[in-house]
Design a protein that fits this description.
The protein has 253 residues and is of the alpha/beta class. It contains nine helices and ten strands. Bound molecules: adenosine-5'-diphosphate (ADP).
Length: 253
């Protein structure tokens, strides 16, 4: 049976006079990939960073694994994994040394190579962060969320700017993390990504949740309401052609 791991009630965030998040409520179930989906400026990152305890809310209630965000932020920090800012990566350290450093900060005793293995970067253990490709950088960034063996990880637009192979590799990685029992909260403005990756999505627009459900249910409801695509849908698209021709194998992405 699924169990609620995050509860957000009537969350609001004002930047000065501007209300970026306008009273949103939702719940996340343990073990799901939950997507916050919406256009740029919708309030996704603001919502995510408030849940991560990195940004102050204006009002509302948040509980993470039973802990009240106002009363027990430190308890919450212990069980969540947050992507560390890439600008903060020490340029002279290699990936293995960076993981050692972060593990030390979290007081965790972990084997860097084992962690790099999880994100398919073992062969880059001696490389510097700046020497990685876009996809590899994102995979490393996801590895840093796993250092403290969290129950929940937060990913903010992890596939933005990646090519189709790198995106699909990242989706596989995120699914693997979820399959090992970690709940994943992800923001994206890619609808195709949300459709194939997320168990449930909340669609946010101008600081409000305008729909929340499984991608399948949302699509079915639209079709039941009489929506028809204006032209015949082909059985494949250009991205399928690209993947078919160039393969899905992990390469230097
Ligand atoms: P999204 O992640 O969906 O793109 P954000 O949460 O980053 O949206 O931003 C929501 C709105 O809040 C935007 O209009 C943005 O300009 C505004 N905003 C975000 N951060 C700040 C800030 N620190 N100060 C003022 N306005 C901000």
């Amino acid at each position: 049976m699924s169990r609620t791991i995050i509860q957000v009630k009537d969350l609001r965030k004002k930047y000065g006079e501007f209300e970026a998040v306008k009273g949103i409520s939702f719940e996340v179930q343990e073990g799901e990939i939950f997507g916050l989906l919406g256009p740029n400026g919708a309030g996704k990152s603001t919502t995510l960073e408030i849940m991560e305890t990195l940004r102050q809310k204006t009002s509302g209630e948040i509980r993470v694994d039973g802990f009240d965000l106002d009363k027990s932020p430190n308890e919450i920090k212990k069980i969540i994994g947050v992507q560390l800012q890439t600008s903060g990566y020490y340029p002279s350290l290699n990936l293995s040394e960076l993981i050692d450093l972060f593990a030390g900060l979290y007081n965790e005793d972990i084997d860097p190579l084992e962690l790099l293995d999880k994100v398919n970067l073992r062969d880059k253990a001696k490389a510097k962060f700046k020497e990685l490709s876009g996809g590899q950088k994102q995979r490393f960034s996801i590895a840093t969320t796993l250092i403290n063996q969290p129950r929940i990880i937060f990913l903010d637009e992890p596939t933005t700017g990646l090519d189709p192979q790198a995106r699909r590799n990242l989706w596989d990685l995120i699914r693997n993390i979820r399959n090992q029992g970690t709940t994943v909260i992800i923001t994206t403005h890619y609808m195709d990504e949300a459709e194939v990756l997320c168990d449930r999505v909340a669609i946010i627009d101008s600081g409000k949740i305008i729909a929340i459900n499984t991608p399948d249910r949302l699509i079915d409801e639209l079709v039941e309401a009489g929506f028809e695509k204006p032209k015949e849908v082909k059985q494949a698209n250009l991205e399928d052609v690209f993947i078919h021709l160039t393969g899905r194998a992990l390469r230097d992405d």
